[in-house]
Amino acid sequence: MPVAMDHLVTVVVGYTAFCVLFLAVFATVKGVYNIFLHPLRRYPGPKTWTATRLTWAYSMQSGRFHEHLHELHQRYGPVVRIAPGELSYIDPRAWKDIYQPHAGHQVIPKGTWIKVPPGEPHSVVTLDEAAHTRNRRALMGAFTEHAILEHAPILESHVSLMMHKFREQATSSQGRVAVVDMAAWLNFLTFDISGALSFGESFDSVKNGKAHPWVEISCSFGKGIALMASVNFFSPLDKLLAYNIPKKVLQKMEYHKQLVHQKFLQRMAMPNKGKSQDYVGSILQYNETKGEVKIPVEELENNMNVLIFAGSETTGTALASIINALLRYPEALQKVVEEIRGAFGSEDQITVSTVGHLEYLTAVIQEGIRLGPPAAVALPRVIPKSGEVICDQWVPGGTYVSLNQYPAYRSPTNFTHPNSFIPERFTPSNPFPSDNISVFEPFLVGRHKCLGQKLAWAEMRLTLAKLLFCFDIAPVEALGDFGEQRTYIFWEKKPLMVELRERNG
Ligand code: HEM
């Protein structure tokens, strides 16, 4: 090797070794600081998590974050330090202290672990407080009791179509028993309804018996978001990731965006576009009558993207968790079937307006969501600069805080037999009066609480009542606990294979 080349190799190797050594020393010093000197040092938590954000990021990438949080809370109590600058709570008091501004406490804004690309229009989930307030106000019209009743025919026709499809399958199958992947069908249903309420047009996944490509792409975004959330803590890795997104993924993202754009333009071209109480109609009416600051068209379109996903993945997950639990607990299944079949004489009688009063069904839904909360792990909030008191303990400014629902709902400190499906705990004859029912807030509390809660309830009640009225359901194989599935911010749902035998069929 020529002398000059030899020298170059030595310099490069030496420089690399120096960088590695520097990074190792830096990480060690930072780790020692985080454990022994950091303002959060007195909060309980394992050193492997409190020394470095890497353990948190690894857990997030493993799909087991919800289970790891549960284990940590079991071991360390109601508040755990899960990263150098982050605390997780399962204490019901944290709902008020973190999410509901009240006398003597500051507003605790959303944290920024998911960075929004520069120039991205605001939406109802934006971090900007003023833009959030105006978008939330503009959308409220689409979620009132009155609006839900206006949407009822859309909900009813979609659910009835799914029953019709199941009946068709059963009729053409051996023994007149249909076998369906219920988790997939519930996603078809909820995305179709969301599409109809956003663009006035369903994705037709139920009609076609398979996911529309847009729906498939949306459901695969969770892993990408979890990855971005993790690397955002390790700048400049985030920039490197942004430049190295595979071409295929970029193409899918572009298709996703273009389809929303195209459907949005179609919706805007509809006659009487502002008259309907769907999402677009609600915003247009707000712009016309109430909005001192109007919602620009780019924000309107961005909201559609957010709402389709927020309204469908969540409701589909809740329904999948409820059905999974019912199939594992035949006594509860029998009881809710009796309630539904005792209340209605025919499928047609089951409507959004008639299904609200079923007490045991309501309890079944709550208990099913407790075992598989759609928002299993939280988007954290960040403590303002001057610090704040959470659950009677001082938390310094800049700390990420959240109440994580999965560990909160599975904790024996909050619920008796936390891993069992016992809907009675949500009825007036609750056999476990010591349960901390106030920790159960699957739709959040405060300024960012779910806008679609009433709609979700209508969808869940209607779907379950019609399904259990029309069909006897049974598992195809032994089912595991819903919580055994992975989460990448959202649940990565496995197929839920169910046998459907038409009643009297
Ligand atoms: C069982 C079903 C559902 C559950 C468990 C659920 C849960 C939640 C939760 C926990 C949040 C707060 C997220 C955060 O800021 O940390 C939220 C926000 C939101 N949800 Fe839902 N959701 C459900 C269904 C729906 C439906 C059907 C819609 C209708 C489009 C919807 C629309 C929204 C919107 C717009 C927000 C943002 C509110 C804001 O930031 O002001 N959700 N939801």
Automatic annotation (TrEMBL):
It comes from the Eukaryota. The chain crosses the membrane at residues 12-33. The keyword Iron applies. One of its GO terms (molecular function) is iron ion binding. Heme binds at residue 450. Keywords: Heme, Iron, Membrane, Metal-binding, Monooxygenase, Oxidoreductase, Transmembrane, Transmembrane helix. It holds the Pfam family p450. Its cofactor is heme. Belongs to the cytochrome P450 family. PANTHER family: CYTOCHROME P450, CYTOCHROME P450 MONOOXYGENASE ASQL-RELATED. This is Benzoate 4-monooxygenase cytochrome-like protein P450.
